[in-house]
Amino acid sequence: MNDMNWLAVYPELVLLGMACVVAMVDLWVTHPRRTPTYLLTQATLAVVAMMHWLYFDGGFTIYGMQHMVVTDPLGHLLGAFAALTVMVALAYARPYAEHREILKGELFTLSLFSLLGISVMLAANNFLMIYLGLELMSLSLYAMTAMRRDNIEATEAAMKYFVLGALASGFLLYGLSMMYGATGSLDIPQVFNAIATGQINKAVLVFGTVFIVAGLAFKLGAVPFHMWIPDVYQGAPTAVTLLIAGAPKLAAFAITFRLLVEGMSGVAADWQQMLMLLAVASMLLGNLAAIAQSNLKRMLAYSTIAQIGFMLLGFTPTVISNNTFSAANGYSSALFYLISYVLTTLGTFGIIMLLSRRGFESEHIDDLKGLAKRSPWYAAVMAIFMFSLAGIPPTVGFYAKLAVLQSLVSTNDTTYIVLAVIAVILSLVGAFYYLRLVKVMYFEEPRESAPIETTGDVRVLLSLNGAAVLVFGLLPGWLMTMCANAVLQALKT
Prior knowledge:
Layout: H1 10-25, H2 35-58, E1 62-64, E2 69-71, H3 73-99, H4 105-122, H5 127-145, H6 152-183, H7 188-197, H8 202-220, H9 228-235, H10 238-245, H11 247-263, H12 268-291, H13 296-312, H14 325-355, H15 371-374, H16 376-390, H17 396-409, H18 414-443, H19 456-474, H20 477-492
Antiparallel strand pairs: 1-2
């Protein structure tokens, strides 16, 4: 086989080429709504999503670029969802960005480049590729956060995001360098083989593991490395907040899986204990801090921390008595949970942007007062999203939480059963602030009577988004099967 094998990176090449084309075409666009740029960007994302889906449907694994990248069902499943996530986010963001004078070519170009960084991480089979993709995605998000240059909050959020993001990258890069020093390789499969021999410096290996987990926790936003999330979510324009809260979470899952599971499963006993502590701390602090928030975006930021903690529980089941069932079950449930969370988050921030208008940011919980009287339909859709985040049936969030809990309990291990009980208790705590939003929408008088205006495509997308949360909750088998097959295929190779 050709060591370069360009077939493995066709989606990334298309994305790179079209990102450059979009940047060039926008130079001649004078339409105030950037319609040509927007349509070209959406067409690009649709083609990339279709390419990933066709690769995923093929079910094969291909190595390319001298084995520095791998194209497998897991990467393509996440790639397809990441492209669709950016598509929907830009559709929601367009009216909002137009009213705040940030509907520029840079928004679309940087979104494509951030997705390119995500795609590189999804296909990474080498430490350098992971870092390259991480920095490409991060730099694009830093720039988008600061797009409202005349806004103090946005500028401050961008600075905090940049400084703490650089710190996270430093943690991860230092951990990867120690792993290279211990194993003598940058390729993930060779790192796995070196650890399996057991003939490497254990102290260096453990220190490298600690720094890698810390770097990943920064990118995921797990406690105690969560401090950037509330400030960035609140300060960034809501359109950019959605771009940060969506597809990058899929990339964080991918590099966590590539590094810890595919490369460092030989030291799973070390990093799984760390993930248990991170998960419990994230659920505890995230849920408790969210209760005290009056700012809606800040509340959702702490909610994200708690949700990430719940997802990390799926990474904690390990190989028991030479049986990989528990591990595979946990990883697939974590993947399903994260996709469900991203699907729900898209709609939640879509509603927030819908309620915002020129000169007014819908950022406080009180801004949702009486929404059911102003617009029963949008209130119902928002309630569906809140029920899903709280894990209430028949939404997809309920089945996602159930899948993670089932993966813990099925181990028949006391530690994991205790973890499941803690997760259930803290989820009940979290249900309070989600249901509080429903109460505000349905049982309080509206603060204003201004009609809610939006474009037809946003109206349809929000309705489809809400319907998807319900459909995948009632019929989760198809999506869960895809996640399980993708994880099992990745573990085999």
